[in-house]
Write a structure and sequence with these properties.
By secondary structure, the protein is an alpha+beta fold. The chain has helices spanning 14-27, 42-54, 69-73, 82-87, 97-102, 125-130, 147-157, 192-195, 209-221, 229-236, 258-261, 301-311, 314-323, 334-344, 349-357, 366-369, 373-389, 395-414; strands at 3-9, 33-39, 104-105, 108-109, 111-117, 119-124, 159-161, 164-170, 248-254, 269-272, 288-293, 327-328.
Length: 419
């Protein structure tokens, strides 16, 4: 019986999934994989929900949207993996400890950590040189590199022809919940990341949140050093990513872009740590840690486990995620990741180490690792933030207006969590 794998399309990963699954089928001639490719985000959520409702859930899926496996585990839908791991004597000690901690729900192992996507700053060295600006630091501990300095450089690197911006100093700087983290604050209290359950909202009580969101929005609305969505579409002009247009000096992003950025030959680019908050505050930044998980009721359970286990092997990890860009969740493959990237990227050892060191300075996110953040975010928090990006409301007013509805959703979604 074929094993259905729910995968993401539209982000350049398709060929890497193909290579890995082709290898699996070659090594397991009695097992075929039905490769279901769906765009990430809402489409992915919808397809996963439809597959569950049809009684034919996927053998493996990942958080290619704003939902982690805990969203489903909290509804009693996740397939526990402990018996398979014990039976096959799968050694879990090589996997990233933060990822492993998050893969348990109410004491049961319901997922396996797949990869790490730390956030770093990509910048156009050619534009920096033309503007007489030195290359950025590669030291995560450099306290002088902060958001004030970032804004100063973004202004200097922005070019105008009359009222028209011809070169942007910055890309959009987190236009979602992560914007609330920029100055060291958070929409959610620290306990959220330990329990995996959103129980409180701190976006309107943490004094660092609204100013951070406003700072990010003002890069576009007030400073005009970052493009509006319409401007970004015009500048990107078919390039796989806006940064690749050569008309954006700095872009915050994750290392999943590396396979595309390796194709850049029109300009020289580099990597730096994300800037610190102002006034010496501690950096608060997220690393995406993905996982593979499965839903209860998969029709070929043994084949599903065989595929999941294979996707965690070093040989599969070298294909996806490593050749695509992200770090493997296997600690033993760290040096191999460096070797792969050195063969394709024209970056210094210090720049490569910025990406390797990134997870040390970053933490898990609420999307992948909480049971009830997804509906809270999609129904209340993100719509409030959209009002800020559109210039309809200040960050402080939008967050204050949304807070009662967010707290109501927290109460409602907590009530759906089983166990």
């Amino acid at each position: 019986m074929p094993v259905p794998a729910l995968l993401r399309s539209g982000s350049g990963e398709e060929n890497f999934f193909k290579q890995a699954i082709d290898l699996f089928e070659k090594q397991n001639p009695g097992t075929t994989v039905n490769r279901i490719l769906v765009p990430g985000g809402a489409d992915y959520n919808t397809k996963l929900d439809l597959m569950i409702a049809s009684g034919d859930p996927p053998a493996i899926y990942a958080p290619f949207s704003d939902r982690g496996y805990r969203y489903y585990a909290a509804k009693g839908l996740s397939q526990p993996l402990d018996e398979f791991v014990a039976r096959d004597k799968l050694d879990l000690s090589d996997f990233h400890p933060d990822g492993m901690k998050g893969c348990r729900w109410q004491g049961k192992l319901c997922a396996l950590p797949l990869d790490l996507w730390p956030h770093v700053l990509f910048y156009n060295k050619t534009l920096f040189k033309e503007a007489g600006v030195d290359n950025l630091t590669t030291d995560w501990k450099d306290a002088s590199w902060n958001t004030d300095k970032y804004l100063e450089l973004a202004r200097k690197l922005t070019k105008r022809d009359g009222d028209q911006v011809t070169q942007f100093g910055s890309d959009a700087y987190f236009n979602y919940w992560a914007s609330g983290w920029i100055f060291g604050g958070d929409f959610l209290p620290p306990a959220t990341y330990e329990t995996g359950i959103v129980s409180e909202f701190s976006g309107d009580t943490d004094p660092r949140v609204a100013p951070a969101v406003q700072w990010a929005a003002d890069l576009m609305l007030k400073e005009k050093v970052a493009p509006s969505p319409a401007q970004a579409q015009q500048v990107q002009a078919g390039a796989p990513a806006l940064f690749m247009s050569g008309k954006v000096a700095m872009s915050i992003g994750n290392i999943g872009s590396l396979s595309n950025f390796a194709k850049i030959d029109a300009f020289e680019w580099g990597v730096a740590p994300a800037p610190n908050p102002p006034a010496g505050a501690q950096r608060h930044l997220h690393v995406w840690i993905d996982f593979w998980s499965m839903i209860k009721g998969v029709k070929n359970l043994e084949g599903a486990w065989k595929l999941m286990k294979f996707m965690m092997t070093p040989e599969a990890q070298r294909i996806y995620p490593m050749a695509y860009g992200p770090l493997s969740s296997r600690l033993s493959l760290g040096q191999e990741w460096l070797t792969i990237q050195k063969s394709t990227l024209k970056l210094s050892d210090d720049e490569l180490n910025v990406m390797v060191q990134g997870p040390t300075y970053e933490q898990i996110d609420p999307e992948n690792w909480s049971a009830n953040f997804s509906p809270i975010n999609s129904k209340a928090l993100q719509p409030a933030l959209d009002k800020v990006w559109l210039g309809d409301m200040s960050a402080a007013d939008a967050i204050k207006e949304a807070a009662p509805g967010i707290r109501k959703l927290i109460t409602e979604t907590k009530a759906t969590i089983t166990g």
